[in-house]
Design goal:
The chain has about 375 residues and is mainly α. Helix content is about 70%, strand content about 5%. The protein is built from 13 helices and three strands. A hairpin with a 2-residue loop joins strand 2 and strand 3. The longest helix has about 35 residues. The radius of gyration is 20 Å and the shape is globular. The mean pLDDT is about 90.
């Protein structure tokens, strides 16, 4: 089928760039004090964020102008490379431990997080696999188990790091693609129940995860321990009120709120910019996701539709989990806010993924 190419979805592109700009500004505001305390440089995290933002925008412009069909040809090789990197992380002396998890490859302050690459690699490969095997997806053994086996293997490697948050995002995006490809809801329901049992087992098996659950239920039971992050996040959001304390005027960033520039940056947004600022960020994400789903629905072929579904699902799950944690709806998981939080490989890969989504929008019906 000949695809007619037009301009990309400009509303999606504008929402992405505005969110990225807000992220750069808020990373500086949230991290300046911490950066000076740790590195003697107020602009340490800002410079890193600007570097990766520029790299990400360049990657987004590249993928926005490359026919998304190219990724279908190389999806298998990309997935194999992602598995190799995930396995390499687990090798002592090769993988770098940060924040209690062996999730990084790199030297010194420079590193990449292979689990971030795996999310996109799995989305690409599942979109190709389920497009090629569309007539078998309704069958449990031949259609559903092979893709689930791949996802389970990737999830297992990520859990060995351990990184439950990234694993949940990977699993959620994969299940959305599988469902959109035509899998039977009954099969997915049975697997969902089995997965819930396994998820409970993973929580019970690791004391720190169980501690996070109990802290989520009652953070004030251990205000200086497991419940500390949740309480400090609420202390940031509360004083923000309707209009906020003003840009740069956060109090919680003065070593009260852990990770103010990454996992809990939305707390600083709510504190400094109030309900209005936080609401504007949410509206921008809703617009981005709406245009993404519109692209998935109007994509000219099954591969493009599934690929767009997976990318939109990945973004949506991360936004829901991150903001849910910040406002106390979910236990602390360590998921960053897309396009906003400080990050290297996560920010670059997110912009690259959105570039692919924008390219699909160029061929939408």
């Amino acid at each position: 089928m000949v695809k007619s190419r037009s301009a990309p979805d400009m509303l999606m592109l504008m929402c992405t760039l505005i969110l990225l700009t807000i992220g750069v500004v808020m990373v500086y505001s949230a991290s300046a004090v911490l950066a000076f305390h740790e590195f003697g440089d107020w602009y340490y995290y800002l410079k890193r964020q600007l570097l990766f933002a520029v790299l990400g925008v360049v990657a987004m412009l590249f993928t926005m102008n490359v026919d998304y069909g190219l990724w279908k040809k190389h999806a298998r090789l990309i997935l194999i490379m992602c598995f190799v990197m995930l396995a390499a992380v687990l090798i002592p002396g090769v993988g770098v431990v940060r924040g209690g998890a062996r999730s990084w490859l790199g030297i010194g302050s420079f590193g990449i997080q292979p689990s971030e690459f795996m999310k996109m690699g799995m989305i690409l490969f599942l979109s190709k696999l389920l497009t090629d095997r569309q007539n078998k997806i309704a069958l449990f053994t031949e259609g559903l188990l092979p893709p689930l086996g791949l996802v389970g293997l990737a999830f297992g490697l990520i859990m060995l790091q351990p990184d439950l948050g990234t694993g949940v995002v990977l699993m959620g995006a994969a299940l959305l693609i599988i469902y959109a490809s035509g899998a039977r809801l009954l099969h997915l329901s049975y697997l969902g129940m089995a997965g819930l049992v396994g998820f409970v087992g993973l929580i019970i098996a690791a004391p720190y995860r169980l501690q996070r659950i109990t802290a989520f239920l009652d953070p004030w039971a251990d205000p200086l321990g497991a419940g500390y992050q949740a309480i400090q996040s609420l202390y940031a959001i509360g004083p923000g009120g309707f209009v906020g304390l003003g840009l740069g005027m956060s109090r919680q960033k003065y070593s009260y709120l852990p990770e103010p520039q990454t996992d809990f940056i939305f707390s600083i947004i709510a504190e400094e910019l109030g309900f209005i600022g936080g609401g504007c960020v949410l509206i921008l994400f809703l617009l981005l996701l709406w245009r993404g789903m519109r692209t998935a629905i109007t994509a000219p072929d099954m591969f493009g539709s599934l690929l767009a579904t997976g990318i939109v699902g990945m973004i949506a799950i991360q936004v829901i989990i991150n903001i849910g944690v910040v406002i106390g709806m979910f236990p602390v998981t360590g998921i960053t806010l897309p396009l906003i939080s400080a990050g290297g490989s996560s920010l670059t890969l997110m912009l690259t993924s959105i570039g692919i989504l924008l390219n699909i929008s160029r061929y939408a019906r």
